[in-house]
Design brief:
alpha/beta, TIM Barrel, 2 domains, eight-stranded parallel beta barrel, Type Iii Antifreeze Protein Isoform Hplc 12, 338 residues, 12 helices
Length: 338
């Protein structure tokens, strides 16, 4: 996968730093002040971006839904997002959000959101996907609850409606997700199928799954984020707090370094050990000048001495004649071979 997506001043793709999203969701609990504090904390924790969820309860939930009050308490009005976006710019962290209806697509576009996110449960909401595509901003599509055919259809709808910069997130929409259901190999599957940058929306507890996902090829990590895990609300307890998120980002950066460039070759430090740890050719028994060298004359001992012959030259040595008499234990040197 060689496609690179640009989100303002950040690039998402192979050989680029993993794009770490602090998913604030509605962990602001309906408070603009708490939302601004989340922006500050995410920036200090090293997040690449902070993301919220933007909704109007009447446009999201049927009036009979028994958990509707949860969303009503977590509602933030449109003017709050202008303040959030401004704080993010001031803190040099990208701001994005998940719109849940067409009006919020327009509002977030007006606030100059760096990217829009499609929630997993809306991957089949093609009307919303079309609305998101029309504002021509980078789109991050979460793929929980879906199979590859449904992902393909969503990608088709978005791209046909105008989306040019698209990132997919592998996701399992269970809160929290047990490790045995993460299916991280799906990251490579999505990359192969769609030739797009792929990340991981992590709903597990702790940060180990995020690190595993980076090792499995994730270019984006999205992780729920809170100021305080003890705050009321459905997501706080399973979110990372600022200290935990910062540690996760540190682990991600360490993993990026450890992954290297993929070329199989010894590093410079290893090369210094080659002659000390690999074997050179030594005579096992006496041999007379002019005699043909056979395998029976040789044994292979560490190290390879200066001027000596490496064990990997056995096929070139056997059958050659030696230029001098030599005794057992003597090192076979390059100048000894005819």
């Amino acid at each position: 996968m060689d496609k690179v997506i640009t989100i303002e001043d950040r690039k998402v793709g192979m050989n680029e730093p993993v794009f770490a999203i602090a998913e604030a969701g509605f962990n602001h609990n309906g408070s603009l002040q708490l939302a601004l504090e989340l922006v500050d904390a995410a920036a200090e924790a090293g997040a690449s971006a902070i993301k919220f969820q933007s909704f109007t309860p009447d446009e999201l939930l049927h009036h009979t839904v028994d958990y509707r009050d949860l969303f009503e308490k977590a509602y933030l009005p449109p003017e709050a997002y202008a303040a959030i976006a401004e704080r993010a710019r001031m803190r040099r962290i990208l701001f994005g959000s998940t719109p849940f209806d067409s009006e919020w697509v327009r509002i977030l576009d007006d606030t100059d959101a760096a990217f829009l996110k499609i929630a997993s449960m809306d991957i089949t909401n093609y009307a919303l996907l079309e609305d998101v595509a029309t504002v021509h901003r980078p789109v991050i599509l979460s793929t929980g609850l879906s199979n590859s055919d449904e992902v393909a259809k969503a990608v088709e709808v978005l791209t046909c409606a105008g989306t040019e910069d698209l990132i997919l997130l592998h996701c399992v929409s269970l809160y929290p997700t047990p490790h045995h259901l993460m299916n991280l190999r799906a990251i490579r599957t999505l990359e192969t199928l769609f030739n797009l940058p792929v990340g991981f929306s992590d709903h597990t507890r702790g940060d180990s799954a995020a690190i595993m996902a980076v090792a499995a090829g994730a270019l984006v990590i999205e992780k729920h984020f809170t100021i305080d895990k003890k705050l009321p609300g459905p997501d706080h307890a399973d979110s990372l707090d600022p200290i935990e998120f910062k540690k996760m980002v540190e682990h991600i950066r360490e993993t990026e370094i450890a992954l290297g460039d993929g070329a199989k070759r010894p590093c410079d430090e290893e090369l210094e050990l080659c002659n000390k740890t690999r074997r050179g050719i030594v005579l096992r028994k006496a041999i007379k000048k002019g005699e043909c060298i056979t395998r029976a004359h040789l044994k292979f001992l560490r190290p390879i001495f200066d001027g000596g012959i490496s064990a990997n030259n056995i096929y070139e040595i056997c059958g050659k004649r030696i230029k001098r008499n030599a005794e057992p234990g003597e090192i076979l040197m390059k100048q000894d071979i005819d």
